Amino acid sequence: MKKSIFFAIVTFGFLLLPGIVFAAQNSNPVGELSYIEGRVDRKNVGGMDYVPVVKGEPVFAGDTLRTKGYSRAEVSFNDKSIVKIGENSQVEIRDYVLSAAGVRENVRLFIDRGILRVIVSHSVTGANNFFIDTPNSMGAVKGSDICVSYLKSASTFLAISGAVETHHQLFPDKAVMVAKGTTTFVPADAPPVTARPYFPVEQDRFEDDTAPMLAKGDNEILPADLSHGVITAYSGDVRTRAKGTPEWHRAALKESLGEGDEIETGENGSLRLVLESGRIIELKANTQLTIKKFMVDPKTRQREDLLASSRGELRARIEKLKAGSKFQVTTPTAVAAVRGTIMYLNISPTLTHAFFEAGQGSLTSLITGIEKLIDPGQNAQADGQGGVTDPVATTAEQHQELENSFNAQEQTYGYSSPDGDSPNMGSFGDGDGSNDPNFSDGQGNEGFVFDGIPVDVPTTDNADKNTSVTDLEFNIDEAALPLSESKNGVAASLKGTINNFSGGELLWSSYLTKDTSDGGSFVGFSGGAISSDVSGTTLAGIYLNPDGHAGVLFGSLEGDASNDSFSGEGQLRFRHQADLELTPANSAMPCNTLTSVLTWVARCRAAI
Known about the structure:
Jelly Rolls; 17-stranded mixed beta sheet; globular; disordered C terminus
């Protein structure tokens, strides 16, 4: 067995060698970067270092493109094919051969990690000449719109249109055809599972994860404005205002903020803003913040992040600054600058109190220009008369109070209460009409609508109609309750009984309910494919936690199967959508049929 595996790996390497050699010799661009958002790097063939790229740069065979967190890229190739790259992804263009007339002859992409959507142009020759590989699988694209991901040592292929044929590298004789409207999963060490119809939420996930994240219409990040901040969490009443506009709107998850934009938190509000560099800014209640400048030099990577705050409390967590870089917050009385790692500011119209931890900072009076350098573990104050106190040691009690006050913030992930009747909304109170309960959420939505719940869920599909899946047992990690927005997901498991199954292939689906131990409720559906000794399940539905936070819980579970049972484990994602007055305790949420689920969704819509 070891010899066979070694032979397969060696053979695979030689198969790829001609494409790599060709790429090294090719100096003609095969496309260009048609869209850039956030931080995107490129490593040329034979190169050792990644270099930041900008929109409009040419792309060559042999290039490797890498996106960072909260970043996206799109490549438009000369044969009219388009590749959309999600965040935290790495894609190598191993081969892209075009004839003198621009006709595609051979293409091979390699996804080292992350998520990709490929819109393949029509093949003039009719040949299958577009291939997408991952570390454990190989895929031959047969047309149109294909999504591929490689996460946690496993691959997923989904065909929005057209088709793709895929197999595990170690099992080339066990290929699966993924036709339009279906998906398959390739485990780390097993052949792909039988393709099954995908649920709308699965297509939505691929489209969302590869689409631009900016919530500012058609604005793009240009070379002179290559940095932005993204709202990754908030709670309570939080609003933002775009540069040059008089209207405020409620903050939204993944909303992108740039130069000139403004943020305010209400009496019960808090917010976390993550910059493209990984720097984190956290705001407590009753805090105002204006972004004066977010700038990064694409060549030197020197950064200049300038903020202003008229009131409130904030914490900035940054890496040690590169020479020539700046991070400053201007207050009514001073300029506070940090050189790394943590800065706390308590700001009022007449006093700025600055604390620095694990790195040096400075406090400079706006009135007199007096500057005091402040060492790690010290703090100082700048008053409204131009005075700046000498730095003093921060006491253990002060340090603990600062740390606890920020770490204790229970940020929910999603929209503020959409009905506008929160008692704290009036605390913004600047008379600009922004407290109107009908103002938008900044994305053109007057209210949230649950989506991705299909009306026609397929029934169990098998030659023997007596075959069925019953006794489903669904569990989620109790330690993660109550659920909130979680990028890393929550562990879950599902197992069930297979009745009258004599082997072969089985496609099944079933409604699924779960009352969690903390008082939350889940209503949805599950479905998947069972083939040989492998099972793959997709799960999606509505989850309402005890506090009235509602959203969609979805994901994939993989595991083992036999003729009479199956099991699966994996990670589910919770996408928070709305804060409701309804809770499982007072909504009488029905849990029996899809009709009841849709009825409950309608009640949720009415409630918001």
